[in-house]
Amino acid sequence: NAGVMQNPRHLVRRRGQEARLRCSPMKGHSHVYWYRQLPEEGLKFMVYLQKENIIDESGMPKERFSAEFPKEGPSILRIQQVVRGDSAAYFCASSPSGFSGNTIYFGEGSWLTVV
Amino acid sequence: GENVEQHPSTLSVQEGDSAVIKCTYSDSASNYFPWYKQELGKRPQLIIDIRSNVGEKKDQRIAVTLNKTAKHFSLHITETQPEDSAVYFCAASATDTGRRALTFGSGTRLQVQP
User: Fold this and answer.
1) Would an 8 Å CB–CB cutoff place B92 in contact with chain A?
2) Are strands B108-113 and B10-14 parallel, antiparallel or unpaired?
3) What does DSSP assign to residue A58?
């Protein structure tokens, strides 16, 4: 039973380019969460999605960032026109559908470096 | 929204001693409180969680306590070992409302000295 799969694990982008990070949830999980972790800091919530639906995007920057979780395929976090401050680890997590208190499981993360 | 505060930010203990990390939360609707351990360059991994209908939960050397009235919860690690050295994060969520995403504390860097 594969865990949460993220790719790429490491990504280098020049300022102004686009970064696309992918996340495939655990089998049977339909809820996906994206978190950002700056070096030496905690995990900051970005967005919570279910299939074809954004449930909570209160942590997403207003510009340049978007996320989707299509009916088929992985969830994608897209960062347009990247800046140095976007350099961080981006963690995806997933949980099963339904009831209260479901544990979320993290992927290995995607480390974005903007040069 | 929810705000989770975590203390201390760093903690150094001798091998064999106990370590205690404390968190407070602001949203009385929060009902799920997991703890994650993160080693350098790795993903956060769940080590224990507690739901609001219990006050304490134990798993071998790890225990978590919850005081809903005071809105705080704590992680206790007994007989610490060098491999316990990592950053520990507490988190809270209100899973019965629309807000199911976890809000994390700022982390505690635990160093166990051999």
Assistant:
1) no
2) parallel
3) T
Nearest to B95 by CA among B51, B43, B42: B51
Q: Using CA coordinates, name the residue in chain B closest to A110.
A: B43
Q: Is B73 on the interface with A (CB under 8 A)?
A: no
Q: How far apart (Å, rounded) are the C-alpha atoms in residues B18 and A21?
A: 40
Query: Could you read off the pLDDT tens digit of each residue along chain B, which spans 114 residues?
Result: 789 999 999 999 999 999 999 999 999 989 899 999 999 989 999 999 998 888 899 999 999 999 999 999 999 999 999 999 999 999 998 877 666 788 999 999 999 999
Q: How far apart are CA B101 and CA A45, in angstroms?
A: 7
CA distance B94 to chain A (A): 8
Query: Residue A90: enclosing H or E segment and its boundaries?
Result: strand A88-96
Distance (Å, whole) CA A45 – CA A57: 9
Q: Specify whether the CB–CB gap between B73 and B91 falls below 8 A.
A: no
